[in-house]
Amino acid sequence: MKFIEGGICAVRGVRAGGVKAGKTGLAVVQAEGNAAGVYTRNRVIAAPLVVTREHITRTGRLAGVIVNSGNANAFTGEQGLADAETMVSEIASRLGVDMELIGVASTGVVGRRLDIGWISAHLDEALDSMGVDAGASMRAARAIMTTDTVPKEIAIEMDSGIRIAGIAKGAGMIEPNMGTMLAFVYTDAKVSPDVLQSCLNVAVDRSFNMVVVDGDTSTNDMVLLTATGKSGIIPETSDLQAGLDLVLIALAKMIAADGEGATRLIESRVTGAATTEDARLAAKAIVRSPLVKSAIFGKDPNWGRIVVAAGYSGADMDQTKISLSFSGGTEVVELVKDGKVVSNDEDILAQLKAIMAQDEIVIITDLGMGHESATAWGCDLTYDYVRINAEYTT
């Protein structure tokens, strides 16, 4: 496997483009093939998600996707559904494909009617910007951003020759089952819809479902996977799964690192759990905790907060068996071993504080209860998070 340039346009059969004007954007991706999707579990479901899910359920395929940023088109009733269908109709007409082969997605403010006039007025501009190069992929990635500070994209080529790539957006309202995030993933492998759906479910569970920024679940979360088949290669399912896992985990980490106001990426590794679910519960509780997140922001070596979070996570644990350490890459500081505090002297706490000042921090928690493990990703909680969300619509 190797990383390659080009974003989603590195995948054979994918064309992309987009336009961005302030907080408002419009992206278009054309790629025809078998498709699968994973969606929010919020009971309040945005109109574009309803439309897209119906299309993929009915056909098992996509020929294109249209995405707007700046307005979620959520909690907008029948008018919202009509606006989503208008977006579908307009792009389907331009691309010359059936409406049921179009996916539609939106992200932004909830509860306000979509400015369908702006979208219609800028659709031709978005289409004119389409291409099959790295710049085209980047235009699409930028067009779907809201409070993101950087675009998110990745492309890889597996040893088998298939390519897998994705773009994503997301910075806030993240967790527990995906977040205010959209991801559009493509492969040029020849894969059936059933295999695509199975692999996507697993990959999402290992990646986007293990990201926590603030504990809120959005109305618009959507991950779409399309297989163009243009490589002519039918991969081993395990090969496809490994590549898809890698791409989605990379995008998930980009989302966590770009959490609203974030200054540090936190990786929570839990080992020694009795069950995989216990490991997931503990790992996510640690990166969800406002006390842990704010301590890391302040570089405060108050490591007891991690033990507390693991204890209330719901995971089976015995405080006499837990071990805890922090890592900033090459340096590791051990804080607890088999339920006993290693040291709280000034040198140890100074080492911990230095690790907490790094851009990426790894928290390793061994529950000592079994052999299962899980990893979750999050970010620190900063003053800017409050500012961004206090001023979101103003």
Question: What's this model, at a glance?
Answer:
The chain is built from 11 helices and 16 strands. By secondary structure, it is of the alpha+beta class. α1 crosses α2, α5 packs across α6 (237-257) and α7 crosses α9.
Order of helices and strands: EEEHEHEHHEEEHEEHEHHHEEEHEEH
Q: Which residues form runs of ≥5 with pLDDT under 50?
A: 173-179
Question: Mean pLDDT across all residues, rounded?
Answer: 92
Total individual domains = 2
Distance between the termini: 45 Å
Pairing-aware structural class of the strands and helices? Answer: alpha+beta
Question: What fraction strand?
Answer: 25-35%
- CATH-wise, what's the superfamily of the largest domain? L-amino peptidase D-ALA esterase/amidase
CATH class of the largest domain: Alpha Beta
* Principal-axis shape: globular
Care to count the β-strands? 16
Helix content: 25-40%
The CATH architecture of the largest domain: 4-Layer Sandwich
What is the number of helical segments per DSSP (H or I, 4+ residues)? 11
The main pleated sheet reads as: 9 strands, mixed
Alpha carbon gyration radius: 21 Å
CATH fold group of the largest domain: L-amino peptidase D-ALA esterase/amidase
Description:
- This protein folds into two domains: 2-257, L-amino peptidase D-ALA esterase/amidase; 265-390, Ubiquitin-like (UB roll) (Roll), CATH 3.10.20.
- The chain has helices at 47-59, 77-95, 116-128, 134-143, 193-206, 237-257, 276-288, 290-297, 304-312, 346-356, 383-390, and strands spanning 2-3, 15-21, 24-39, 61-71, 102-109, 152-157, 163-169, 182-187, 211-212, 222-227, 265-273, 323-327, 332-337, 340-341, 360-366, 372-379.
- The termini are far apart.
- The protein is 35% helix and 27% strand.
- Helix 7 (276-288) crosses helix 9.
- With 394 residues, the chain is α+β, with helices and mostly antiparallel strands.
- It contains eleven helices and 16 strands.
- The longest helix has 21 residues, at 237-257.
